[in-house]
Amino acid sequence: MLACRDVGLATRALQRLPSPPGNTSWITYLRCHDDIGWTFSDEDAALLGVNGNDHRRFLNEFYRGRFNGSFARGLPFQENPLTGDCRISGTCASLAGLEKALQEEGANEVELAIRRILLIHGMILTVGGIPLIYLGDEVGTLNDYAYRDDPAKFGDSRWVHRPFANWEKIDRRNVLHAPEAEVYGGLQRLIAVRKETEAFSGGAMSVVDADNPHVFGYVRQNDRGRILALANLSEREQRVTANTVRNHGLSYSFRDLISGDIITLGDDLALGSYQLVWLMAV
Fold first, then answer.
1. Distance from first CA to last CA of the chain, Å, rounded?
2. Rounded Cα distance, 70 and 218, in Å
3. Residue with the larger pLDDT of the pair 2 and 211
4. Which end of the chain is more exposed for a tag (fewer CB within 10 A), N or C?
5. DSSP states of 200-264 as a string?
């Protein structure tokens, strides 16, 4: 879902992010009614050997589906044809590949898209702050291109992710194995775990180095517990060394709160395609 440099940029930016005042909190979300811009620091990018402008151009091309191998189906907003600069419009599901998978590919790519959707929602649920899930994302709502038929909206691509509620699609959240049901059920499980896990309440969040450029890691900790979260942002299996997991998780044995599995580190930790784990010491 993200290139190695994006994991590095996210790690560096969040490590430098100041904590909010004690009586306030961040709001953490994937998208809203507006467009998406790439607001990482050019200075942070340069420290990783990345040209900021070039990388924003890559992200714009990727998320509008014009980069070879892209799964995304976004639209440009306020594009500058001379520089290629723009912002991106699109629903979470379409940007994460579900639209392309359903219309052009098959079951394997649909599964990967759903994994991406659940992974990034699992991150906003636990990285800190108050998570916000935008209406429609809970059932994998796709881009709505009907706005182009309205002269009052035609010139504003943000309407592609501002559709009217599709109640037929919403009702499909109860249809076994439907994409809507897979997204909805997966989110319900993640939210239930977050609600019952006191270590996610308040407390500190610290970004850690997972020693793998495809894996984003962070720790949530308070006086009621400590959780190490590791997110594989790749569609390929990734491994995190046992020593890295022990050092950040402060244990040799863990329970993954998402799957319920007990993990005893005798070897490196293998993370499947777009897998997210929330590890609590046992």
1. 31
2. 27
3. 211
4. C
5. GSSSEEEEE--SSTTEEEEEEEETTEEEEEEEE-SSS-EEE-HHHHHHHHTSSEEEETTT--EEE
Residue 86: what are its φ and ψ, rounded to 5°? Answer: -165, 180
Residue 7 structure tokens: 């994991």
Domain edges within the chain: 1-196, 200-282
Q: In this predicted structure, what is the pLDDT of residue 94?
A: 98
Output the CA–CA distances (angstroms, integers) from residue 127 to 101, 124, 131, 180, in the order listed.
28, 6, 9, 25
The CATH-assigned architecture of domain 1-196 is Alpha-Beta Barrel (3.20)
pLDDT band at 7 (very low <50, low <70, confident <90, very high): confident
Q: Taking Cα atoms as reference points, which of 75, 118, 112 lies closest to residue 95? A: 75
Is the pLDDT assigned to residue 10 strictly greater than 90?
A: no
Q: How confident is the model at residue 3 (pLDDT cuts 50, 70, 90)?
A: low
* Mean pLDDT, residues 254-282 taken together: 97
Residues 6 or more apart whose CB falls under 8 angstroms from that of 83 comprise none
